[in-house]
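Worked example 3 (structure in, sequence out).
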């Protein structure tokens, strides 16, 4: 990988998944098939790699497992196949995280790119009016935060290099797809041009809103420090990401949040 995530884990290609080093843990991977994400694609009948990506929820160092459980946190990892989905880059289907146990806010997610090039596409709502829409471009070592209640998907911007990333998640994680699927995707579709670059097509099922393309935010108010792996930040201060499982702790930060 192009980035050291702070513990001994490596993506594998055949089979697609992860290898865990000594003192580390992780489950067998779950696969997302092409059929499972077709409803979020511009061309649901397209061909492409299958499975599209592999997920391992709840990974890390064995010594940290009690602290993770106590704080209701888990560290999930995802690796994508190379290639394309028709004229679209390899990507996840859009979703919103399920509400936390207090039923007030859905958990945020703290992404860290390990290899490849990512675009995290996000919008404030999975409703007819999507609100503000962002496409956040990030490379190895960069962090992207998805705030509570936002619909989002992760896109591999380089068809030749598999995208791999880790993320801090709520241990009671769950995904809601209904809003995005009822609109047949998020508010914008990424398409590959002849040179391999990304351009965007509006989804006409939403009220038209502008798409802002940018790099990751600075996120110091959320404890993010550039150059330090987000797993290492937890290792040094196990309470630093409590706002993932309890988003009310950063309620002021989420107001008018800019990713």
């Amino acid at each position: 990988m192009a980035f050291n995530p702070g513990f001994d884990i490596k993506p594998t290609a055949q089979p697609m998944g992860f290898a865990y080093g000594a003192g580390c843990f992780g489950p067998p991977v779950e696969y997302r098939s092409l059929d499972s994400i077709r409803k979020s694609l511009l061309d649901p009948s397209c061909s492409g790699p299958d499975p599209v990506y592999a997920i391992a929820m709840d990974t890390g160092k064995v010594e940290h497992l009690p602290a993770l459980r106590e704080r209701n946190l888990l560290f999930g990892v995802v690796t994508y196949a190379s290639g394309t989905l028709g004229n679209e880059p390899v990507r996840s289907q859009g979703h919103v995280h399920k509400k936390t146990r207090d039923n007030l806010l859905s958990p945020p997610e703290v992404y860290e790119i390990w290899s490849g090039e990512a675009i995290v596409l996000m919008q404030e709502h999975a409703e007819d009016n999507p609100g503000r829409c962002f496409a956040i471009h990030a490379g190895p070592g960069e962090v992207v935060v998805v705030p509570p209640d936002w619909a989002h998907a992760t896109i591999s911007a380089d068809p030749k290099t598999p995208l791999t990333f880790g993320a801090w998640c709520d241990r009671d994680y769950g995904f809601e797809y209904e809003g995005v699927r009822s609109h047949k995707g998020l508010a914008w579709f990424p398409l590959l041009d002849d040179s391999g670059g990304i351009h965007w097509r509006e989804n006409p099922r939403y009220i038209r809103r502008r798409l802002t393309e940018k790099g990751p935010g600075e996120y110091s108010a959320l404890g993010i420090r550039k150059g330090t792996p987000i797993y290492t930040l937890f290792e040094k201060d196990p309470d630093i990401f409590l706002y993932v499982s309890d988003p009310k702790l950063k309620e002021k930060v989420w107001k008018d949040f800019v990713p």
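Notes: The chain has six helices and 19 strands. The chain has a mean pLDDT of 95.
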